[in-house]
Specification:
Two copies of one chain form a homodimer.
Chain A: E1 9-14, H1 31-44, E2 53-58, E3 69-73, E4 77-80, H2 84-95, E5 105-106
Parallel strand pairs in A: 1-2
Antiparallel strand pairs in A: 1-3, 3-4, 4-5
Chain lengths: 108, 108
């Protein structure tokens, strides 16, 4: 319905935190630390801002058992990640070059 | 890059809160209350879930002066709103029928 996107890639990190003993959550898997890293990398590479990339925290994206997870819009590509190395791949391949990182992708 | 979206409409409410005296923020304009209302409406209408609608809180979407704001993906349509009546229009026209509510739309 829209041909232009305010952000070329808008990335949402699930940052949901559940009490101990409940269903698994992304916050327990390093989401905050990795999101901060992603923000720093995107800024350092000059990708941040309108027409570029925006990294955001989000509430529960409800793919908890597949997480930690992120979603990149408007292309609606979902990823999981383990650590900063995975984020490097997503930033350099997807956010810089527009190529999906298939090894980290979650199926729709 | 993707033909299917996990959620047909994924709605992010900016919920950023700044200290008093700083730049304006969406939290000061009822974002939390209105987001909760949107979640209830979407559930009540049977729209919530995979293949349907997801309402999420997000960190600062960085359109503070135009806010309070939301963005609907994958179509990348941005809205502002004043109150629950505006959300009713967005839910019933956009999320149910796929029609953009032009009077509330923010330009890209």
């Amino acid at each position: 319905m829209s041909t232009e996107s305010h952000y070329r890639h808008h990335v949402f990190f699930c940052g949901n935190r559940r009490p101990p003993g409940e269903r698994t959550c992304c916050a327990d898997k390093g989401a905050d630390r990795v999101r901060d890293y992603a923000k720093r990398r995107v800024k350092a590479l000059g990708l941040a801002g309108v027409g570029g990339v925006r990294i955001n925290q989000a509430g529960c994206l409800d793919r908890c058992e597949e997480g930690p997870c992120i979603v990149v819009y408007p292309e609606a590509v979902w990823y999981t990640y383990v650590d900063e190395d995975d984020i490097d791949d997503i930033v350099e391949q997807h956010l810089q070059k527009g190529q999906i990182v298939e090894r980290l992708r979650l199926k729709d």
